[in-house]
Design goal:
Layout lengths: L1 E10 L2 E11 L4 E5 L6 H8 L7 E6 L2 E2 L4 H4 L2 E4 L11 H11 L5 H11 L12 H14 L4 E5 L7 H18 L2 E6 L11 E6 L2 E7 H6 L1 E7 L14 E8 L2 E7 L2 H9 L5 E6 L2 H11 L4 H4 L2
Parallel strand pairs: 3-8, 3-9, 6-7, 7-8
Antiparallel strand pairs: 1-2, 1-4, 4-5, 9-10, 11-13, 11-14, 12-13
Length: 300
């Protein structure tokens, strides 16, 4: 299990990560979403042991990651800004990875190269941005490591390649019970891949949940009551995150058990009652409004 506890990171006088807490279970695909500058890359670098925490701890299976060679052998970190050795072809880069990871699987490497149609003898400097991103993923999965940290995983990939990458990642987790942590500023890139997601804002994970709960425990309600003078206070026993009334019809965003909420609303003998699902992006936005953030400031 990956654990961050009261984790913080400062660079001189600038605090990038502050009092962060999260636990990522084995065999999961965890998506971390946040605007540019929220601290996603810094968080991954601490989990990968590149940065030493300024406070708190970053642990994998109860061991601190920083300066821990044993744990690092089970970790692959692919940053947003990719780096390959100058003048190397892709096969030479695989040789380098094989020197670092004792379980590097050359058969899997070749199979993935064929799958993605990448020439192992081609110089990487001649690859397109998307091909370099594909190459980094191939090298990572060929290591047979257990923990994969990908920063802006789908940057530069076209829709077809994004779908293929998602399929390969899901297959690896299913077959090997590996653990994947992905970051993105774009929620839509992750929602059909991850089983858990968190929202990082100004260096803190403001909330996190499994995808199924996020989608089923919050919904839009449209309701009209016999007494047209009703207001928000009529629904004070519910957790209402957003309320707007237009004429005799109120629109609300409600969080809670769907059946219990429905029972409460029906007890008021509504003239109109509709419960509508929300997209995952809408769920995140309304959750954040509950923390006092404006929609425009999220930039998701």
């Amino acid at each position: 299990m990956i654990v961050a506890e009261n984790l913080g990171k400062k660079f001189r006088n600038k605090t990038v990560i502050r009092q962060m807490n999260c636990a990522i279970k084995e065999g999961s695909i965890y998506g971390l979403v946040g605007a540019n500058g929220a601290g996603k890359s810094t968080f991954l670098r601490m989990l990968a042991g590149v940065y030493q925490p300024s406070e708190g701890k970053a642990e994998i299976n109860g061991e601190a990651v920083f300066d821990n060679a044993k744990i690092k052998k089970e970790i692959v970190f692919i940053p947003d800004e990719l780096y390959f050795f100058p003048n190397y072809n892709f096969r030479m880069m695989a040789d380098y990875y094989a020197s670092l990871y004792e379980h590097f699987d050359r058969h899997r490497f070749q199979m993935l190269c064929d799958h993605f149609k990448l020439d192992t003898e081609a110089r990487i400097q001649n690859f397109s941005k998307g091909m370099k991103r594909q190459g980094a993923l191939i090298l990572a999965l060929s290591t047979r490591a257990h923990y994969f940290f990908f920063d802006e995983t789908f940057d530069g990939l076209d829709p077809v390649m994004r779908s293929l990458v998602k399929s390969v990642l899901s297959e690896d987790v299913a077959q090997r019970n590996s653990t994947v942590l992905l970051t993105s500023h774009n929620l839509r890139e992750l929602e059909d891949l991850c089983d858990h997601m968190g929202l990082l804002v100004e260096g803190r994970i403001m909330f996190e949940s499994d995808i199924d709960s996020l989608k089923t425990e919050m919904f839009k309600v449209q309701i009209a009551l016999p007494d047209k003078t009703f207001d928000r206070d009529e629904f004070r026993q519910l957790k209402v995150l957003y309320y707007k009334k237009s004429g005799s019809i109120a629109t609300m965003i409600v969080k809670g058990d769907r059946e219990l909420v429905t029972d409460v609303l029906r007890s008021k003998q509504p003239i109109i009652l509709d419960l509508l699902p929300l997209s995952l992006e809408e769920v995140f936005i309304y959750e954040m409004e509950g923390y006092g953030y404006e929609f425009d400031s999220l930039r998701l």
